[in-house]
UniProtKB/TrEMBL annotation:
Enzyme class, UniProt record, top EC level: transferase
EC number: 2.6.1.76
GO MF, any single term: diaminobutyrate-2-oxoglutarate transaminase activity
Cofactor(s) named in the record: pyridoxal 5'-phosphate
Domain of life: Bacteria
Protein name: Diaminobutyrate--2-oxoglutarate transaminase
CDD domains, A to Z: OAT_like
Stated family: Belongs to the class-III pyridoxal-phosphate-dependent aminotransferase family.
InterPro entries in the record: Aminotrans_3, Aminotrans_3_PPA_site, Dat, Ectoine_EctB, PyrdxlP-dep_Trfase, PyrdxlP-dep_Trfase_major, PyrdxlP-dep_Trfase_small
Keywords: Aminotransferase, Pyridoxal phosphate, Transferase
Pathway noted in the entry: Amine and polyamine biosynthesis; ectoine biosynthesis; L-ectoine from L-aspartate 4-semialdehyde: step 1/3
Keyword presence, Transferase: yes
Amino acid sequence: MSIFETLESEVRSYSRGWPTVFDRAQGSWLYSEDGKPYLDFFAGAGALNYGHNHPVLKKALIDYISRDGVTHSLDMFTVAKRDFLETLNEVILQPRSMEYKVIFPGPGGANAVEAALKLARKVTGKESVINFTNAFHGMTLGALSVTGNSMKRGGAGIPLVHATPMPYDQYFDGAYPDFLYFERLLEDSGSGLNEPAAVIVETVQGEGGINAARLEWLKGLSDLCKRHNILLILDDVQMGCGRTGPFFSFEEAGIEPDMICLSKSIGGYGLPMAITLIRPDLDVWAPGEHNGTFRGISPAFVTAAEALRTYWRDDELEKSTKAKGERIGTVFNEIVEAYPESNLVAKGRGLARGLEFPSGELAGKVCAAAFDRGLLMETSGPDSEVVKLLPALTTTDDEIEKGLGIIKDSVESVLAR
Ligand code: PLP
C-alpha cells in the first residue's frame, strides 16, 4: 500500500480516477514520475486556464521570489497587491466601464462566495438567498447551503438553511415560461417565500453538469432581480477568467451583477487566490468584520497581474477560446450522431464542454478509458453522468485534435462493446 493509501484520508477523490503519481507539468501536459505524458483536459478544475507553469508567469514569479518579495502579508499594503489592483483596474474593469471594489477573502472559491453571502445579508438585513437546481458554490457551510448536490450537502452534518432553490434555465425543458414559478412566489403574499437578500447564480454550471444558461435567461434573471430589489451574486469562480470566451462569463448577457466571485484562474499560475468584486455602495463592512490569514498571498498577486497583462489587453484569447470550443462542440455533436441509440447530449459554451451519458457508470468508463490512453478528464453532474472538458485556454489546436481523437476512441471502446 502506498503512503497515499495508508496515510491520506479516504476523502481524496481525483486520485482514484487517475491512479498514478504526477511529478512535472508544462502547458497542457502532466507527466507521471515514470515519465508517462498525460494530456490535461481538466486543468485544475479550471484553475489553470493558462496551462501548467506558463513560462512568462513563471519568470515573474521566480524574479519576485529571488528578490525576496514579500510572500505573506495578510491584508497589508504591498507592492505586489498594488500592481495587481492597478492592473485589474486598467486591463479589466475600466475598459468595461465596470465600477467595483475588491474584497480579498480567503484564497478558495468558497471563500469568495462566503464573503458575498455575508455581505448581501448584512446590506439587506435579510437572511434568505435564492440558489438554483444543480448549483455548486463550494464546500464551506454557507456555500454548501446554496449548492444543489445532495451527497455534498449531506456532508454538512447540520441542516443547511436560509436558501431556497429555484429551477435553473431549461430545468423543465422549456415547458414553462422562464421565471414563472419564481416571480409568482415573489409576488404572492401567501407563497411563504422569505424575502430574499440575494440570488446566486453560475452562467454555466460546471460541477452541475455543464449546463449553460441561455444569455437571454441570464438577462431575464438580472431584470427580475432589479424589479424585486434583490442583489445578484454572479459566481464566476469556474467560468470566469476567459473559460467561456470573454474575461467574465456574463459579459455577453449584458448584465451588471451586484457582486462577482472569482477564484481558480484569477491567480494565473494555479496559486491560491480569490476576490469578490462588489458594487461600491455595498461596501458597508466594518474593518476586520470579514477576515482570514491567507488573504494576501503576494506570489499569486504577481502571477495574477502578469496573466492579465499577457492575455487580456486584446481579444486574441477570447477569439481562440471560442473557436476551440466550437471545434469541440462540432466533434461532440458528431459523437452524439454516431450513437443515436445511446441518447448522448453535447453541452457547454466556450472551452467548458460536456458530453452527457445516460448514466454515471458509462461516463466514468469513458473517463477511465481516456486515462488509459493518456488523457485526463473528469465527470460532473448530479449523477456524474457528464464527461466534462476544461482544457487550458492555451491548449494548441493540435493538442485539441489529439484529445478529441482519444475521446472518440474512448467512447467507442465503451459504447461499441
Ligand atoms: N463556485 C464555483 C462555481 C465552483 O465551481 C467552485 C469549485 O469548483 C467553487 C465555487 C468553490 O471553489 P473552491 O473549491 O476553490 O472553494
